[in-house]
Amino acid sequence: MKVYDRTPLNLDRMVIPHGRVYLIPERCKGCNICIRFCPMQVLQESKGQNAKGYHYPEIVEGKEDACVHCQFCMIVCPEFAIYTDAGEGSTP
Ligand code: SF4
Ligand code: SF4
After folding, report:
1. Over residues 1-19, mean pLDDT
2. Fewer CB within 10 Å, N or C, the chain?
3. Do 40 and 63 touch, CB atoms closer than 8 A?
4. More confident site: 88 or 82
């Protein structure tokens, strides 16, 4: 099957959102669901532990500006421990 590729006509007007990630480490239970669901691979398990001994997520080094504010991590977190807001510098 032939696959056709085309560039969107409005590509120059598309804005790529940028998000800031916030974490409440004490709520985290180390399930790693947010890490697995992040489409940009922004998150990884940290070496740090909260009071319950769970390893909470952290931002991957070099990916500090990679979050696209899709909010998947926030939606899937069962403990409401992670969320994002719209950061500055969304790229047109
Ligand atoms: S908002 Fe989306 S891109 Fe940003 S850390 Fe969460 S899942 Fe990843
Ligand atoms: S989904 Fe929530 S509870 Fe699970 S590792 Fe991520 S922040 Fe922690």
Report:
1. 86
2. N
3. yes
4. 82
Atom of ligand 2 nearest to the CA of 33: 1
Residue 14 C-alpha to ligand 1 middle, in angstroms?
19
Coil, strand or helix at 25: helix
CB of 81 within 8 A of CB of 27?
yes
Q: Which domains does the chain have, with CATH numbers?
A: 28-86 (3.30.70.20)
Residue of 18, 36, 70 best suited for mutating to test ligand 1, as the one with most atoms within 8 Å of CB: 70
CA-nearest residue, atom 1 of ligand 2: 77
Which of 71, 82, 90 has most ligand 1 atoms within 8 Å of CB, for mutation? Answer: 71
